[in-house]
């Protein structure tokens, strides 16, 4: 089954990740539940209509019920995470090519670690190599 490509905002992605762990109350009824996860209930309230419309989440148990991830939402979440990891792996491979061209081992190892963690972009890792090589 193909997963529709609904581009997720960082907030929508985060909401789906939290709902992947457990169903949560709507932000109006459970602001503290969202705050405990580092999310602002007002922001979640604004993100939910698009997620509901797209079929990525659903309401269970009426108005004051829970918000739950749908199978489509789970697939979309995992597809988005796969895309992120694919991009990160591509950046690591590109950086490895730069290292193979003769970068010093210690700065290259530090930059590679940051790149693999997702802390730095490919451009930042390459800039670190250039600055250390001078």
Summarize the structure.
Helices cover 63% and strands 6% of the residues. It has 134 residues and is mainly alpha-helical. The model has no long low-confidence stretch (mean pLDDT 85).
Question: Keywords, please?
Answer:
134 residues; mainly alpha; 6 helices; 2 strands
- Total count of helical runs of at least 4 residues: 6
Main sheet specs? 2 strands, antiparallel
The whole-angstrom Rg is 20 Å
Strand percent estimate? 5-15%
Total strands: 2
Distance between the termini: 51 Å
Give the overall shape: elongated
Q: Class by helix and strand content?
A: mainly alpha
Would you identify the regions where 5 or more consecutive residues have pLDDT less than 50? none
Work out the oligomeric state of the chains in this entry: single chain
Strand order of the largest sheet: 1-2
Mean pLDDT: 85
Secondary-structure element sequence?
Answer: HHHEEHHH
- Tell me roughly what share of residues is in helical segments: 55-70%
Walk me through what this model shows:
With 134 residues, the chain is mostly helical. It is 63% helix and 6% strand. It is built from 6 helices and 2 strands; from the N terminus they run αααββααα. The protein has helices at residues 10-21, 31-35, 41-53, 71-100, 105-117, 122-132, and strands at 57-60, 66-69. It has a two-stranded antiparallel ribbon with strand order 1-2. A hairpin with a 5-residue loop joins strand 1 (57-60) and strand 2 (66-69). Helix 1 (10-21) packs across helix 4, helix 4 (71-100) runs parallel beside helix 6 and helix 5 runs antiparallel to helix 6. The longest helix is centred in the middle third of the chain and has 30 residues, at 71-100. The mean pLDDT is 85.
